[in-house]
């Protein structure tokens, strides 16, 4: 019952806004036709006010006078506005096809002059979507809503976005996707609030959106939130009364709707003392002629439910009787079905079984028609349709920018090759350094047995250590400059305005790799000469989900090159960890790279997390060759025993996991693993940030 009320009110207010959004004006006019001084005086809102006061004939008279006035500047703009109003009149008169013909003519005239008439193009496109929605062609409706939104970008007017979000909200609501509908309603509320020209109708629309959010929360059983938004909507209405050019009848209808919503909420909570007066108030207000009579029916049915429970059958009969004229109106179908259903239960309860069967049969017939119409909505998934349109739009943009993309891609490939070359050089120098360290250790073992040679051996070690430090200093100096140049080039390229998202993503990866190279050089020096380099951590609270996703994305090109499926299983973004992002990224990336190195082609690697109390455990699981038993005791040590080639002959330095363990322990975490011939899984456990 409440769902149909939302759709009904939204339909009415949505159309009113479509009628007004092109020219949100606060000026009032007399019922007479205004003098035509210039084009700015011709507002759709003014024409609508004439209609409200004098009907269609006066509107047509105004259109005729405008059409024959040749002294107005920019005659084409005037003609387009007039046709926009004519299309809306056709919709009100129940002639959607005639309205579509007029709209198509507007679109044809403005297609090639969008810079001058984009507002008219967007208005017509939105109206076209509105018509298709009313005709039940939801896919076409979503298509034109999306096109209108895309055409509005860069125009500086948020009203068009508000209409788009509002229509999508209603579609999601009809498909029972209440949480998604709430998000879109909230965006529509914000966009209505920043319209360039606000008037009574934009504010009226905002209070209706607040009420709809409350109704969504009611549908999900969040009654406290629902009541909060209902009360907020009533407060908003009180503020709207203070505006100029107020339509008090419309505000009274809105108040009646919210009274009914609150009454149904209290009825659900069995707080009859509050529910019954509110429902009666709704019936009293919206049963008036030209008010929201359908909403009043929903409250009548709710009161009828209460009177059935209390066995107040005379009151039930009085409240449930509605004018017969409603029974033949198509827009009242759902509400009449509710009346048939509750009457059937009433007659069954009072043992009038013939009447009960009669109304039950009428209810079932009408309900089948309603379900068939609802199925058409459910068959058209809003989100999938919008995602499809988004993909199509992206493909079109990519095709137009193909030449520039190829040029930038060539630069990116060159930078990637250079970056890879630098990484190889870094590892070569590191292996040299490692070899020297091993030689020093062997020399130290030999001279330890001979005290007489200890001094000479120490001199040799010191000399070699000096040589090693010199080499590392040369590496740091020679590699940092080109690495910084790569980072600067990537940053400069990102400043191009016409880059595609894919190109930006590649540049981000290059910049991240350059920064990682810089940190890796520092880490090698730090590992070889502990205490001589900055060991401070730059801790930051981050979403574990977002952080791990970036690590996986950064290493996905490596797994793809080896035809390995790198999978990331997301977790809730609410879980936070306090880490030095650069260091911890190196730890996770090291585990992923090791998994790739020791896995065969066409296997998979999975990165996922589990949460237990205040602790989160990060898993890196592969289907590789496993770790031999004789190496497991050395796996976290910088030891020559653990160096072994990957499945494709990839080389191994042998200190990566020792660095990972060091980084994890700096973050007060723990690292462990399990391994067999079917694969290896590494676990990193950290405390969650509260």
Please tell me about this protein's structure.
The longest helix has 47 residues. The protein is elongated. Among the domains are: 75 residues, no CATH class; 128 residues; 149 residues, Histidine kinase-like ATPase, C-terminal domain (Heat Shock Protein 90), CATH 3.30.565.10. With 690 residues, the chain is of the alpha+beta class. A five-stranded mixed beta sheet has the order 2-4-5-7-6. Strands 1-3 form a two-stranded antiparallel ribbon. Helix 14 runs antiparallel to helix 15. 34% of the residues are buried.
Low-confidence stretches: 1-42
Please report the distance between the alpha carbons of the first and last residues. 42 Å
CATH topology of the domain at 539-687: Heat Shock Protein 90
Relevant CATH superfamily of the domain at 539-687: Histidine kinase-like ATPase, C-terminal domain
- Overall mean pLDDT stands at 77
CATH class of the domain at 539-687: Alpha Beta
Q: How many strand segments?
A: 7
List keywords for this structure.
5-stranded mixed sheet, 68% helix, 7 strands, alpha+beta, single chain, Heat Shock Protein 90
Can you lay out the helices and strands and say which pair or pack?
Blueprint: H1 2-20, H2 44-54, H3 56-68, H4 75-92, H5 96-110, H6 114-135, H7 138-152, H8 159-174, H9 178-193, H10 200-219, H11 223-240, H12 248-268, H13 272-286, H14 293-310, H15 313-320, H16 333-349, H17 353-379, H18 382-400, H19 402-448, H20 454-493, H21 501-528, E1 539-543, H22 544-561, E2 565-568, E3 576-580, H23 581-597, E4 604-612, E5 615-621, H24 656-666, E6 670-676, E7 679-687
Parallel strand pairs: 2-4
Antiparallel strand pairs: 1-3, 4-5, 5-7, 6-7
Helix pairs in contact: 1-8, 1-10, 2-3, 3-4, 4-5, 4-6, 5-6, 6-7, 6-8, 7-8, 7-18, 8-9, 9-10, 10-11, 10-12, 11-12, 12-13, 12-14, 13-14, 14-15, 14-16, 16-17, 19-20, 19-21, 20-21, 22-23, 23-24
């Amino acid at each position: 019952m409440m769902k149909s009320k939302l759709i009904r009110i939204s339909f009415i207010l949505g159309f009113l806004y479509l009628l007004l959004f092109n020219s949100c004006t606060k000026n009032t006019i007399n019922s007479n036709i205004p003098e035509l001084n210039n084009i700015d005086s011709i507002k759709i809102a003014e024409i609508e006010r004439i209609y409200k006061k004098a009907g269609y004939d006066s509107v047509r008279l105004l259109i005729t006078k405008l059409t024959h006035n040749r002294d107005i500047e920019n005659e084409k703009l005037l003609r387009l506005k007039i046709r926009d109003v004519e299309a809306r009149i056709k919709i009100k008169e129940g002639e959607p096809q005639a309205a579509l013909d007029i709209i198509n003519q507007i679109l044809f005239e403005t297609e090639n002059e969008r810079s001058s008439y984009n507002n008219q193009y967007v208005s017509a496109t939105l109206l076209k979507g509105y018509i298709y929605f009313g005709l039940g062609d939801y896919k076409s409706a979503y298509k034109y809503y999306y096109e209108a939104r895309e055409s509005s970008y860069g125009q500086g007017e948020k009203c068009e976005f508000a209409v788009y979000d509002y229509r999508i909200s209603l579609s999601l609501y009809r498909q029972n996707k209440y949480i998604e509908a709430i998000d879109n309603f909230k965006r529509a509320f914000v966009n209505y609030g920043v319209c360039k020209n606000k008037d009574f109708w934009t504010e009226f629309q905002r209070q209706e959106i607040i009420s709809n959010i409350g109704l969504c929360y009611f549908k999900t059983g969040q009654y406290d939130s629902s009541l909060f938004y209902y009360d907020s909507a009533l407060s908003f209405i009180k503020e709207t009364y203070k505006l100029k050019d107020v339509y008090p009848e419309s505000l009274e209808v809105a108040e009646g709707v919210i009274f009914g919503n609150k009454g149904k909420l209290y009825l659900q909570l069995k707080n009859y003392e509050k529910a019954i007066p509110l429902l009666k108030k709704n019936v009293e207000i919206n049963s008036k002629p030209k008010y929201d009579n359908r909403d009043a029916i929903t409250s009548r049915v709710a009161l009828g439910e209460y009177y059935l429970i209390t066995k107040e059958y005379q009151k039930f009969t009085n409240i449930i009787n509605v004018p017969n004229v409603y029974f033949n109106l198509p827009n009242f179908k759902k509400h009449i079905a509710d009346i048939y259903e509750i009457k059937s239960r009433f007659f069954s309860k009072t043992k009038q079984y013939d009447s009960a069967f009669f109304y039950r049969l009428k209810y079932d017939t009408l309900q089948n028609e309603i379900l068939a119409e609802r199925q058409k909505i459910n068959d058209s998934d809003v989100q999938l349709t919008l995602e499809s349109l988004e993909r199509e739009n992206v493909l079109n943009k990519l095709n137009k920018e193909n030449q520039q993309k190829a040029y930038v891609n060539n630069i990116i490939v060159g930078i990637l090759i250079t970056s890879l070359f630098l990484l190889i050089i870094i590892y070569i120098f590191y292996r040299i350094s490692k070899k020297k360290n091993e030689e020093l250790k062997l020399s130290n073992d030999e001279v330890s047995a001979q005290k007489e040679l200890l001094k000479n051996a120490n001199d040799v070690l010191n000399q070699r250590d000096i040589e090693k430090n010199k080499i590392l200093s040369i590496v740091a100096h020679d590699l940092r400059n080109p690495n910084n140049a790569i980072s600067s080039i990537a940053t400069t390229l990102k400043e191009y305005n016409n880059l595609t998202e894919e190109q930006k993503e590649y540049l981000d990866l290059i910049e991240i790799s350059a920064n990682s190279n810089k940190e890796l050089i520092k880490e090698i020096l730090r590992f070889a000469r502990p205490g001589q380099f900055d060991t401070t951590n730059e801790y930051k609270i981050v979403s574990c989900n977002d952080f791990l996703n970036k690590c996986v994305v950064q290493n996905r090109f490596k797994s793809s090159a080896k035809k390995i499926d790198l999978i990331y299983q997301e977790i809730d973004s609410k879980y936070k960890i306090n880490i030095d992002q650069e260091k911890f990224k190196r730890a996770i990336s090291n585990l992923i790279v090791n998994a790739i190195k020791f896995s065969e082609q066409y296997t998979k690697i999975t990165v996922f997390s589990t949460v237990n109390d205040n602790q989160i455990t990060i898993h890196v699981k592969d289907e590789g060759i496993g770790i031999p038993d004789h190496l497991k005791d050395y796996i976290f040590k910088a030891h020559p025993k653990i160096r072994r080639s990957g499945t494709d002959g990839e080389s191994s330095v042998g200190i990566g996991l020792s660095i990972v363990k060091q980084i994890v322990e700096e973050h007060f975490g723990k690292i462990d693993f399990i391994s067999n011939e079917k694969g290896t899984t590494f676990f990193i456990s950290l405390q969650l940030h509260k």
